[in-house]
Amino acid sequence: MGVGGEMKNRAVFLDRDGVLNATVNVAGVDCPPPDARALVLFPSAEEAVQRLRQAGFLCICVTNQPDIARGKRSTKNVMTMNERVFMELGLDDLFMCPHDTPDNCNCRKPKPGLLIAAADKWNLDLSECWMIGDRKTDIAAGHAVGCRTIFINNSHAGIAFEPNPDFICMDVGEASLYIIAGDGGGIQQQTLSNSYLFRTRS
Ligand SMILES: [Mg+2]
Ligand SMILES: [Zn+2]
């Protein structure tokens, strides 16, 4: 509820690589897929988006794509991948930072520019929003705007770091269940895996 009773929207911000689609291992480094044909969406991602939208959350992808600034990928190449993610998952919106760290933009996560732009466009109450990501920079961007946060532990990052996420989950499907459970949606705790899912902050 906004000032004067104005209703605001709520959203789940979703990182792209490692959350919605698989990364590609190149010489031991997790990289975005090289092109749209090589992009593999995670099996649980479409269902997660449907579930969250049904519960009244807008689903908005927020993605850093610094390979554009580095000249390793064309904007068109990356936009074609984004289009696949957007269309096939039925997202509400997608915001991308094409810059690299030396550009010192306001949108490259951990900076919160993408989330702020989305909040302006969609009239979001950020305190009612969630950020799901697989890097500490995702969690930091969420915290910077007062979102709750879920870290996807897909094993290429440690789980003991600052800033602490609110929750740690195995994948986006599990994260979506937990958001709805926390929202009083009645999902039973035992439907969630207990090896990865635990509260990290009270
Ligand atoms: Mg990622
Ligand atoms: Zn940027």
Question: If you had to describe this structure to a student in words, what would you say it looks like?
Answer:
The protein is α/β, with parallel strands linked by helices and 202 residues long. It has 5 helices and 9 strands, in the order E-E-E-H-E-H-E-H-E-H-E-E-H-E. The protein has a single domain, classed as Rossmann fold (3-Layer(aba) Sandwich), CATH 3.40.50. It has helices at residues 43-54, 75-89, 113-122, 136-144, 172-182; strands spanning 10-14, 24-26, 29-31, 57-64, 93-97, 130-133, 148-152, 167-169, 198-199. The strands form 2 sheets. It has a 7-stranded mixed β-sheet with strand order 5-4-1-6-7-8-9, with helices on both faces. Helix 4 (136-144) links the parallel strand 6 (130-133) and strand 7 (148-152). Helix 1 runs parallel beside helix 5 (172-182). The longest helix has 15 residues, at 75-89. The chain starts with 9 loop residues before the first strand and ends with a strand. The structure holds magnesium ion (MG) and zinc ion. The site of zinc ion (ZN) has 5 residues, from loops.
Based on the model shown, name its key terms:
Rossmann fold, binds magnesium ion, 5 helices, binds zinc ion, 9 strands, two-stranded antiparallel ribbon, alpha/beta, disordered C terminus
Uncertain parts = 186-202
* CATH architecture title: 3-Layer(aba) Sandwich
Which small molecules are bound?
Answer: magnesium ion, zinc ion
Shape: globular
What are the secondary-structure elements, in order, as H or E?
Answer: EEEHEHEHEHEEHE
